[in-house]
Amino acid sequence: MLRKVSTLSITGALIAGILVSTPAYAAVSNGSTCPTVNKTTKVSGFTYKCVTAVKSTVTLDGAKTTIYLPATATTKNAKKYFLAVDCINESASYTKSAKELTGLETSTAAALVEIDAQIAAQNAASANVQTQIDALTKENADIAIKIKEQTDLIPIAQKEVTDLTAKIAGVTKQIDDFTVILNDSKLKLAKLKEDKVNAAKNAVTITKLSTAISQLTSSITSLKTYNSTSKIQMQSLNGSISKYNSSIMQLKNTVSKNLASIESSKKIGTTIATLNKTKELTASQLQQAKDALTQTKNSRNLLCSAGL
Questions:
Q1: Which of 118, 188, 262, 308 is the one with CA 20 to 30 A from 135?
Q2: For residue 60, what is the enclosing H or E element?
């Protein structure tokens, strides 16, 4: 983080400047030459350290001011000077903050490009928002009609299944009853045919029984065919009911998705406003960092002023 100006350090430096301006301490201040690097000395509680440094001129509070700054490995024409420890520390803080600001400027520039791209995309999307909302609303209205139509068909199909179930049960009973009669008639016919003594007498009855057995057999076959057809119809109806339910579920899911899309579309304006605020905040944070660096630089220049 960029370091803010230390008011206490500046005040201390000013006091130190006042103190070293007296004859007793005039020998040691920022810019005093020294013989050995890293040698320290104290003046009225303030520590000065011998370092390699360079002399420079800056504008401080509108006036030209001479300052001494710690040298780096690549600095040319550096000499050994006493510098206040506060000056050394503030110089290091400024160097670190300046490096951090360079990285922050790069990341901020990339972030602003991304935010601008998002804003552009949202603006492009917002141009057709109302058209999309109207289309989705109409689609949901059409779907609602389909859902009602298919929902209304379900009880009708269920009633048909109930009716067919009852009919199948009735026909099954008829088949059972006719089967009993058929079996009884076959037994009677068999006995009459076995009675050879009364063959002539039983001939008419045998003919009638044979005809009745044939008719019963045909009726039972027809009834079984009817039941088979009815069962197929019932299976088809049950399948239709399942399809109706499945279709209704899918249609409702589509409605839910459309409603979510409508809500999302309505939020585009809010999203754009949020992105613009984010953009302002991002730029503001960079400016704050620059201002803080300027404060740190001014603090450094003051603490490193010649004679302080």
A1: 118
A2: strand 46-60
36: DSSP letter: S
**pLDDT, tens digit (0-9, with 9 covering 90-100), for 46-57:** 899 999 999 999
What rounded mean pLDDT belongs to the chain? 88
CB distance 305 to 65 below 8 Å? yes
Task: List, in order, residues 6 or more apart from 151 with CB less than 8 Å away.
Answer: 244, 248
Residues 6+ apart with CB under 8 A from 30: 48, 67, 68, 81, 82, 83, 84, 87, 304, 305, 306, 307, 308
CA distance 297 to 303: 10
pTM above 0.85, yes or no: no
Distance CA 6, CA 61 (A): 17
CA distance 69 to 304: 7
Owning domain of residue 134: 123-272
- Whether residue 139 lies inside any domain: the answer is yes
